[in-house]
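quick one, two chains, predict together pls
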Amino acid sequence: MKEKIVEILTDLRPEFDFNEDVNFIEEGMLDSFDVVSLVDELESQFNIKINGTDVIAENFSSLDKIEALVKKSGAA
Amino acid sequence: MNLKFKNKQITGILTILPKRVVTFEEEMGNYNFPEKKSLRLKKVMGYNTHRVAAEGQCSSDFCIHGLQYLFDNGLLQKDDIDALLFVSQSPDYFMPPTSNLIQGHFNLKHDIICMDINQGCAGFEIGLMQAFMLLEQDAVNKVVLMNADVLSPKVSIHDRNSKPLVGDAASITIVEKTEEEKDIFVSVKMDGTGAKALIIPAGGFRMPCTEETAIEHEDEAGNFRSLNNLVMQGDDVFNFVQREVPPMIHELLENAGKKAEDIDWYMFHQPNKFMLNKLADAIGVPYEKMPSNIVENFGNASGVTVPTCISYNLGEKLEQASYLTCLSGFGVGLTWAAILMEIGPVRFNQIIEF
């Protein structure tokens, strides 16, 4: 699952390495519009629905956090 | 706050749109972002075209054009108007009230209440609430509610946060008494601690416009705007809406003894498609019952989006039939409000251009 998420993130922001252990939001690797686009892609690729109340920066700050959100939202 | 009314009805809705159509692609070059990223945003948010007023056109001009149309077509009689409400964030002047100017333009009777209300995204619901309150009086039988905003001149062309979605428009809604005792449920909530999430910082008495306030600065996301421009903290607004609006709707339905599926239409404010779809999911409503096509076709004109949504999606159908409708607006203030009421059959439900 993580590989797929990195693939989606890299397509969104090819200039960054999302395998790095950094805070994606604080480092400016993802802005709010990237987050919206990411939600759209994650929902489509994993066939899930992410709750609106879960679309907060904290949930997109690292690969682990994004993976946890995807799982919480129904992905196997 | 929960309110309840009886014996009130909407008898007509007219939406007035500017003729000028601007496409997302026309403005995309003004943004400080790669084209691919902007186009991705266009798809997710549902941006496409928006209607923009011609230079010099004010909110009141659209209202006057709409009222003249109603008078000319016999859809409204001047002497029947007991109250004229103008809900807007773009008045002609700080003083006098724009509603008085419109009353003066048509030389309407003096036995009338003119009232300006400064509200934005929830302006249709707040305006209706005020209309219902006025109609509790014996002397008031017909209220003309005007929602109007021409805010596009206040948005920086270099601001991808706000420019692609802002639209200019006006609507005129006729609200009057009825013998029918159907309940109208209203919920209104406000939180001024979040007021700066949507603001035009300069131009009022607190911070008058100067050469300095007109200088554009780059924000963290790469948008350029000045203090004279509208600024929206998109994340804060999104989070507030997702957190507050679904519980308000659930509470409103519970008060009315209804389930989400009992409602025919959810006519909501139209900030963007993404936000509306998330709201529909949270409330448990199929997307078909909550149209999200206004920002895509006309832009977001604050409190005018809900009547535009009704006019565009229901059109003449509403002149023949009645629908149990949940209205909701959320944004500037912060204000969030919802109304559950039966709407239709109305005398008119149209869109015209000016």
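Chain A has one domain: 2-72.
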